[in-house]
Design goal:
Layout (H helix, E strand, L loop, with lengths): L5 E13 L5 E10 L2 E6 L8 E8 L2 E13 L9 E7 L4 H12 L7
Antiparallel strand pairs: 1-2, 1-4, 2-3, 3-6, 4-5, 5-6
């Protein structure tokens, strides 16, 4: 079994997050794979919280994808953001394949 390709984002990507109480926030993703992403959240999101996430990356568009918080960084007064791992619970197969293809591409270095 091969490991899932995960790609760090050179520039954080805006992600719309809809919480269970319907509150919406804009947070920032710092890496992405077909299985999920890592957010830099301004407020703590407890493990097992179910969210809906939306974002656009190149030709990939994800809209209201059910996602679950699977890990979070420890709270600390010294950190401005809380690193939070999200698992996509249900992505259309073609979207997951597009993210996998994107994440598998070598990162281009600028000169």
């Amino acid at each position: 079994m091969s490991a899932e390709a995960r790609r760090n984002l050179a520039v954080p990507m805006a992600v719309r997050v809809r919480l269970p109480d319907a509150e919406e926030r804009r947070e920032w993703a710092v890496n992405l794979s077909a299985g999920g992403l890592c957010l830099q959240a301004r407020e703590r999101l407890p493990v097992d919280t179910t969210l809906l996430v939306s974002f656009e990356l190149e030709s990939i568009r994800v809209s209201d994808a059910p996602s679950r918080v699977v890990w979070e960084s420890a709270d600390s007064d010294t950190h401005r953001f809380h690193e939070t791992g999200l698992h996509f619970e249900a992505l259309p197969p073609e979207t997951a394949a597009a993210i996998e293809a994107w994440a598998s591409q070598p990162t281009r270095r600028r000169r």
